Amino acid sequence: MKLRTIIFTAACVLAAACTQTKTVTLVSYNVGVFHKYTDNSMPEVIALVKEAGAGIVGLNELDSMARRTGERDQLREFAGGMGGWEYNYTPAFDFQGGAYGIGTCADPSLNVLGSYDVALGKHDGSEPRMMSVMNLQDFVFATLHIDHVSAGARMEQAKRAEGWLMHHFAESGKPVFLSGDFNDTPESEVISHMAENWTLISDKGNSHSSDKPEICIDYIFLLNNGAQCEVLDAHTIAASSVADPAAASDHLAKAVTVKIRTQKPSALNPKPLVIPEVKSWEGGKGSMGPLSGRIVAEGEDASAVAELLAGDLQLMGKGGFSIVSGSSKAGDIVLRTVVDESAGEESYTLRVSDRAELCAPARKGLYWSTRTLLQLLEQDDDLPKGSICDEPEYGLRGFMIDCGRKNIPMDYLRNLVKIMAYYKMNTLQVHLNDCAIPKFTDGNWDRMYSGFRLESETFPGLASKDGSYTKEEFKAFQKEAETLGVEIIPEIDAPAHTLAFAHYKKSLGSREYGLDHLDLFNDECYEFMDALWKEYLEGDDPVFYGPRVHIGTDEYSNKDSLVVEKFRYFTDRYIKYVESFGKQACVWGALTHADGVTPVKSEGVIMSEWYNGYAQPRDMKAAGYDMISIPDGWTYIVPAAGYYYDYLDTRMLYDRWTPAHIGREVFDENDPQILGGMFAEWNDHIGNGISISDIHDRVFPAIQTMSTKCWAGARTIIPFDDFEAARGRFSEAPGVNELGREGFAGRTFAGYGYKVTFTVDAAAEEKGTVLSRCDRSTFYLSDPETGRLGFSRDGYLITFSQSLLPGSHSYTVECTSDCTKLYVDGQLTDSLDLIPAVNRVQFAKVSTLVFPLGKVQGFKSKVSDFKVEKI
Question: Which residues are CB-contacts of 560 (< 8 A; sequence separation ≥ 6)?
C-alpha cells in the first residue's frame, strides 16, 4: 500500500479502554482584570498559579485592549508569562475600545484540540455573559462568569452552560470540568441545581472578598458522565510563599488536583480533515484499496449525481469512470438515496469499507457527499476505512458579490459557483446594481459611475455598456448553479444605490436626497420599479429563476419622518409585489434606521443583518423576520479601500464567529430565525485597479473559512492552525484554477507568488504586440499606447518604464498580491507597488498581474527559455 498522505487532525478517535493515568491541577481564578488593588497584579497571579502547579486555568474578568488597563491583551500576556501556554479569549462585550470577557489557558503538553466561545445570554441581568471552553486530548475544561445582579439570569445562564457542555461532550468518554465565578453561594438554587448532573469537586472555602473572605462563589464542577476521575486535592489558595493572594485580586483562586484516565489513540483511522469539517467520524482499520473505475447509481437522483461525479473525477485526473446499476463490488463508488424523514435534505453518510457507499435522503445531500469524497481523494487515492455522518448546523451558507460597481464576468461567476459547491456553500447573492459613493467623488452626478448588469427589453439601454449579462445567460447560470446545489439570489437594490436608474431617466432620482436615491414622492418611480421587476419575474420560466429575490432597501436617507414613512411604504410594497410572483423576498436590514409607524411585512421575509445600527437584530427577530447573519465588522471585504477588511480575519472568524454572532449581539446557536451566514465582497472604490484575480485572492480563503463556520458552527473542533495548514493544499474545485497554482488542473496563468522568466532577442515591434494572453490578462512586448513592456487586465492598461532592449536579454516578471516587479538581466528595473488608499478620499492604486500562459504568434522577436517558478 502506498504511503498515506491523508491530512489528519489531532482530534482523533480515542480508545475505549486504557490503564494509563495523568495527574493535572485545575485552577479557577477571578483576577479582576489584574487591576483591583494595583495597576498590574499579573506577576503575582502568575506566581500563585505556578506555585499551585496548575496545568490549566480558567480566568474571569479579563480586559483585551481596553483603555482602562493600558490597551493590553491580558490573556495573551498571561499565557506568555506561563511559558507560552495555549489560550482562548472569550469576549463578553465591547468595552473602552477593546473587550471585556473571560478565558482559558493551558499547558501545551495537554494537547488542546479545539476552543469554543459559548454565549450564555443577557436575560434580565446587567451584562451579556459567556463561557470559554477548551477541548483537550484527555478532558474538557470550561470557565464562565455568570450574572451578579439577577438570580433568574444566573439560573438560565448556568442551564445554558451545562446544556451546551452535555450536548457536545457528555458522551465523549472524557471528564468534563466547569469552573468559574457563579456569583452564588453553595446553598443557592443555582448551585443546588448543578448537583443534579455535576459533582462539586472544589472545596467550599470562602473565596470573596480576598482580604476578608465571607462567601464562596467560585467553583469547579465535574460532569457526572461516567468518566474516570479521582480528586486528589482541593483547596482555596488563601496563603502563599510567593505572593499575597489578598492583594492579587478581590477573589481567591480555587485549585483542584485530579487523576484522570488518559485517552490513548487507537489503531483505528483518525478523523480526516476536509472542508467544511465533518460532524461525525467513526474510524475503521486499514484502507479501501484501488478504485474500480465504476460508479454504481441506485435511482434517478443518484444517476444525476453520478454523472457530475464522473466528470469531476475526470477533471481531477482520476481517470474515466463508468456509471452502472445493479450490485456493487470491491473498489466501487456507490450512490443511493434512502428514505429518512427525520434527516434534512443536506445530510448524508459516507461509509468506506472495501467500497465507498454514499447515501442521503435527498439529491442535495448526496451531491454534498461527493464533495467530501473528492476532497478525500485529493489527499490519497486509497481511502481510509470508516464512516462519516454529516449535516450542516445552518441551512444557508453564502456569499454576496458586488457586480454593480465592478463588472464581474459570467465565466468567473460560473467558476465561483463551482468553488462554492466544492465547499458546500449553497447561496450566492448577485448584487446587480450600484454606483459610486458620492463622498468619494467630485459630486457631479452626471459623471458619477453607476452600473446595472442585466439586459432589459422594457428599458433598452439600461444595462451597463462596460459589461452586463443577457437575460438568457443569467437564467442559464441560475439553472446550472442549481444542479450544483447553489441557489442564486438576484438583487436589484432600491430605493438607494439607484443612480443607474436616474442616469437612464433623470426624473426618477431625488433632488432632495441625491440622484442615487429614487424619488419616493414621485409616482413615476413606482411605475418604473413595477415594470423592471415584472420583466424578470413574470411567466412560467422567469429570468429570476430561483425561489428568492433580494429587493435591497438599504441606506436610504432618514432625514425626516415623511421620507422614513415613504421608505417603509416602498419596502412593504415591493416585498408584497415580488411575493405576488411566487417569490420569497429578501431585504437589507434598515428598519431601526427607518423607525416609523408604516407597517412593513415581516412574516416569511428574510432580512440580511449587516449593521445593528440600521436594524437591531433582537428587535427584528421579535418583529418576526428570519435573518441572515452578515455583520459588516466580521464579514465585509472592500479590496484595498483602507476600511472594513481587505482580507477577512479568518483566524478570528474561525475561532470566535458563528452565524449566531450578529455584530455585538450573540444569539443561541441554531436559533430558528437565524437561517445562516454570509460574507460580502464590495467594490466601493471604482477605478482603483482591482482585478478579478485580486477579488478572488480575497474571496477564496473566505469561502473555505465561512463554509466551515456555517456548516460546523460552534462544533468546529479542528484547530485553526491545522485548518490553515491544510486548506491551501486543496483545489478550488475540479478543473477550476482561478488562483493560477502549479499542480492544479485548469491553469491558464501563473498566479500570485510566481515569477515568469523569458529571454527576448529583440526586433522592432509594433505597438500592441502581445507575448501571451489568457482570459484574465494580456502581456505586451510593446503595449498599445507607449510601446513599452506592459500588461492589461479588467480594462486597465499598466506599463513598465522599460522597453525591450536591443539584442538578447533576460526578463523576469515577479507577481505578488500587492506588487508586480520587472527584472532585466537579473537587475530590478521596475516595482509597481500598491499605493494605499488615504483617508477614504484618495483611492489605492493596484497594479497586480497574473501572468498569462497562453502564448500567441505574430511577434517578430525571438522568445526562448520561458519558465515559471514559485517565488
Answer: none
- Asked if 612 contacts 662 with a C-beta cutoff of 8 angstroms, the reply is yes
Distance CA 298, CA 726 (A): 34
DSSP string, 557-577: --SSHHHHHHHHHHHHHHHHH
**Torsion (CA) 699, 700, 703, 709 in degrees, nearest 10:** -110
Q: What residue type is 520 in one-letter code?
A: L
DSSP result, 794-855 = TTEEEE-SPPPPSSEEEEEEEE-SSEEEEEETTEEEEEEE-B--BTTTBPPB----PEE--B
Q: In this structure, which amino acid lies at residue 511?
A: R
SS3 state of residue 24? strand
Chain-centroid distance of CA 807 in Å reads 52
Q: pLDDT, tens digit, for every residue of 545-557? A: 999 999 999 999 9
Round to whole Å and give the CA distance between 656 and 628: 18
CA 569 – CA 565 distance, rounded (Å): 6
Q: How far apart are CA 97 and CA 588, in angstroms?
A: 28
Tens digit of each residue's pLDDT (9 = 90 or more) over 321-346: 999 999 999 999 999 998 877 788 99
Cα separation, 27 vs 605, whole angstroms: 48
In which element (H, E) is residue 626 found?
Answer: strand 626-629
Q: Residue 113 above 90 pLDDT?
A: no
CA pair distance 772, 784, nearest whole angstrom: 14
pLDDT at 248: 96
604: left (phi over 0), alpha (psi -120 to 50) or beta: left
pLDDT recorded at residue 828: 98
- Phi, psi values for residue 289, rounded to 5°: 100, 180
Contacts of 605 (CB under 8 A, 6+ apart): 575, 584, 585, 586, 587, 625, 626
- Angstrom distances, CA of residue 323 to CA of 291, 296, 850: 13, 6, 38
Helix pair angle (74-81, 42-51), 10° resolution: 40
Distance CA(635)–CA(644), nearest Å, equals: 9
Q: Please report the DSSP string for 422-483 in residue order.
A: HTT--EEEEE-EEE--GGGS-S-TTTS-EEE-B--SSSTT-S-TT--B-HHHHHHHHHHHHH
- Residue 367 scores a pLDDT above 80: yes
Phi then psi for residue 93, to 5 deg, are: -165, 160
E-strand stretches of 98-217: 98-106, 112-121, 129-136, 140-145, 176-181, 198-200
178 closest CA partner among 200, 209, 205 = 200
Q: Is 532 helix (H, G, I), strand (E, B) or coil?
A: helix
Is residue 457 classed exposed, middle or buried when 0-12, 13-18 and 19+ CB atoms within 10 A define those classes? Answer: exposed
Strand blocks (E) in 263-313: 280-287, 294-298
Distance CA(727)–CA(704), nearest Å, equals 7
User: So what's the pLDDT on residue 122?
Assistant: 78
Contact 803, 815 (CB under 8 A): no
Say which DSSP state 362 is in: S
Give the integer Cα–Cα distance in Å for 203 and 26. Answer: 13
Contact 438, 467 (CB under 8 A): no
The rounded distance, in Å, linking the Cα atoms of 196 and 686 is: 61
Conformation bin of residue 840: beta by default, left when phi > 0, alpha when psi is -120 to 50: left
Q: Is 802 exposed, middle or buried (0-12, 13-18, 19+ CB in 10 A)?
A: middle
> Smallest Cα–Cα separation from 620: which of 673, 558, 549, 547?
673
**One-letter-per-residue 3-state SS of 191-258:** HHHHCCCEEECCCCCCCECCCCCCECCEEEEEECCCCCEEEEEEEEECCCCCCCHHHHCCECEEEEEE
Return the percentage of the chain with pLDDT > 90, whole number. 87
pLDDT in the model for residue 18:
37
